Amino acid sequence: MSDRCIRQIMVKPESNFIKGELLTSNGMKIAGWLAMASAFLTLPLAYLSFSLEEMHNSYSDIIQTFIQATGTLLFLAIILCLKRLLNTAFNFHGTDRNIDLMIIASIVTGMLTIGLFSFPVLKESLQSAVIVLLVALGIVQAQFGYRLLKLSNNLGGLLKPFCYANMATGIFLASVVLMPISIIVSALSDLMLGTIFFNISRLTKTNGSDQR
After folding, report:
1. Is 165 inside any structural domain?
2. Which of 8, 71, 183, 202 falls 20 to 30 Å from 34 in CA-CA distance?
3. Is 151 helix (H, G, I), strand (E, B) or coil?
4. Mean pLDDT across the chain, nearest whole number?
5. What domain range is 163 assigned to?
6. Which class for 62: exposed (0-12), middle (13-18), buried (19 or more C-beta within 10 A)?
7. C-alpha angle with apex 87: 86 to 93, nearest 5 degrees?
8. The whole model's pTM is what?
């Protein structure tokens, strides 16, 4: 992406958008790597988790717990970085409620899913609860993508593709039967988000050098 496109990412590049060190080049770079890691690990980990479903032993349960915990923590780190970016760089708060709800739903879903491996007696009840939460999460994520379209900046041309990917992920997730497809679209969404973070990181570094 050219420097001109990168500079168009910010609404007011001359403003002090790194005020209070809330948004730094290194911070955005780390967020970018986290998003990329999520993009490239999502499908392999999902396949591994699916392969282990029929196994009922402590070894497979430990791996499943690790996969779920890793996925949840990675999602939380990425979504919090995105919220900070939207709030700090663009003063955009239109998706705050959706992000907060996604965080809550993700934490609860992660805990219940881990509970499936720790309390097999409650498997049926926990599975039903997880499905309900995933449907709710899908609806909230679809709304998130739609509301994010109101962002005044096009993020270097990635805003609409990222928003549409989130809406599609949410719809597929909420449909239950199309959940596997949501995993693929989610990986693509993370790939775009990682690119956005890297572009912001580069711009932040450039602005910091200019100010000095």
Report:
1. yes
2. 8
3. coil
4. 86
5. 24-199
6. exposed
7. 90
8. 0.84
